Amino acid sequence: MAVELGHFALVLALALSIVQATVPLVGARVKSYQLMRVGETVAIAGFLLILVSFTTLVHGYIVSDFSILNVWENSHSAKPMLFKITGTWGNHEGSMLLWVMILAFFAAMVAVFGRNLPPSLRANVIAVQGMVAVAFLLFILFTSNPFTRIIPAPIEGKDLNPLLQDIGLAIHPPLLYLGYVGFSISFSFAVAALIEGRIDAAWARWVRPWTLLAWAFLTGGIAMGSYWAYYELGWGGFWFWDPVENASFLPWLAGTALLHSAIVMEKRSALKIWTVLLAILTFSLSLMGTFLVRSGVLTSVHAFATDPARGVFILIILLLFIGGSLALFGLRASSLTSGGLFHPISREGALVLNNLILSTCTATVLIGTLYPLLIEALTGEKISVGAPFFNLTFIPLVVPLLLAVPFGPLLAWKRGDLLGAAQRLQFAFGAVLVVMIGTYFFSDKTSTAAALGLGLGFWLIFGALTDIAFKAGVGKNSLSVVFSRLKGLPLSVFGTAFAHAGIGLTVIGLVSVTTLQIERIVLMKPNDVVEAGGYTLKFSGVTPFKGPNFTEDQARFDLTGPDGRRLGEIAAAKRLYPARGMPTTEAGIRTFGLSQLYVSIGEATPNGLVVHAWWKPRVTLIWIGALVMMFGGGLSLCDRRLRVGAPTRRKTAVEAEA
Amino acid sequence: MRSILLALVLFCTMLGQAGAVVSPDEVLDDPALEARARALSANLRCMVCQNQSIDDSDAELARDLRVLVRERLVAGDTDEQVINYLTARYGEFVLLRPQFNSRNLILWGTPVLVLLVGGAFAFTAYRKRAGKRAIEQLSPEEEAALQKVLESKE
To answer: Are A234 and B3 within 8 A, CB to CB?
Structure first.
């Protein structure tokens, strides 16, 4: 399949996007149903064209067509097939094509599943989505074309960055982009509402599922990326507060706030203006993340200045969309009427607190990420803002929020009973006390942080259980009544409980591994022994091994459990990829229950091999928690009330019009 | 996105030997001093790396700095003296946690400012609404009249 076909399809997609960005908008303006309908057809066709374009590039990678510059730069004929395919988006051009394909995918989804939306709202949403697509298609075609050929074609490719030759690349970027770019739908809905100057509870009901979908994908994407870095980078870290990570974490924080404020808007018609603003800000943060990562500005402001073509282009897109949408917001926001009075102690009040703290968290991470760039641009000085800053500011902000989480779902709308909620939580509180005392006396008496932190994690889990128990009337009704009430509860109630308990699991994982981890650094010769967390590693020596496109030296260890039972071998390796002459470390990881033994090797010195072994208690809960959060999001999505395309008003009117 | 992080980290990996960090020959005999050295190292940047502390990095420079921190500690420096020594030598870039000073006011002030302004905004919005509601509520006379109507219905 010639990539020229893909190139051509992409240009066609651009043409269609221009139609998509204009015709439905005009249609909504002049109330022409025919013009509005154009948007749907064009959105679906545009997505299919980008899909064709993407497929031809993937095909180029599969057949190792090194006459394509992008394939030559990032692939190698000896690479395993999976990594040939995933290598398509393991580089700038390919990943931007994936980005824009997912953008078009969401527009097509609205076209297919949004049949019950009021026609003018649907038309405007699709048009705004089209505008974003136009901008990014222009970006790809003018500054980041993946279809450029080289003549004559080289015989062998330069290979993909070895760190990316991992199953992680197959899962992490697509999930992350589905989340990142998925927020474009919330953005388009917000802008469409501002264009129409009208917004109601039904609007929130349509926006929520899309936000929830994007949020669930982003949660999974971030967690997957974290696990990938954990096992691939070889020093056992799982979160580095790196600007690139922050770029994906910022939309997650804002998106989480949006998810919660949309509930208030849907149920109580309050916080309308704020919800629209959050929807705009969330996608703006996604765009800003794209700018930060894609422009090279992160390495240095000067690196950006020397090759500004891409950076300036994305910066213009950024200013256009953020500035434009905020200007529209400034003009129109006052026309959105707000209703729904509430007392500070109420479900709404709790959700406002959630939004206040999450917004502060977002602002904190944002300033921490941008500050070094700001200082460098203004004064030329270089300073660093790293993990210690974020830990010092972010943790004190987020702990009170997590403490408050179990109260939220137990408070009534409009006016809640804080004392009543506290009484309902007394069992949860008692259980948490037991956990804390138990941790202190039986696990580690030196670490009060561990006891308090684990208490917080369990507080979230027991709090979530309390909410379900209360709603099912446990203690007030007989078992059969409780059971039938449980069955009758809306799925979104379980979704909330799972998501909140998921954070609890993640907190337990984070706290366990940061406070109770055991670390050993030793020099080992064959038959030397090191012990971590009760497990004994006996070094049996180094053996060479040859993979398809790498060679490695494997250090092998015989593993013995705390009970003296032999548990086989664990191998850690140092790998060399000759195509790029690049060394990597492959950690040896063995999972026991929720905990992991993590072994990584360093230099071979005359006194022996440097071996780094960690016992990481309950570390897997960090990512299991995220999966549980995703599952909660999925449950909520399956709720009848929120299901995409659930029957809504005005359907008959639309059909009559058609 | 992660791909870029990994690519940047590679830069570091290529400079040093890939593998575990803090080799055993660096470790101090005094566990208290070693613990202080590790804590300090986590706050100091490996300056040739992308956002890595010298504790996490296996680059040559990170190793030199780790040894330097330990030398200063053995010589009897306090934590603060070590930090000052390194800042004087390498500039503020070496600190992963920027100093509390007037220049960094925006950085440290933003979280507090956003929290306060946001809180104040939410509070005034509530007060404004609560004021409106007071008007919407029935006066005692109206309340009594309503009660009368309700009772007559029963």
So the answer is: no
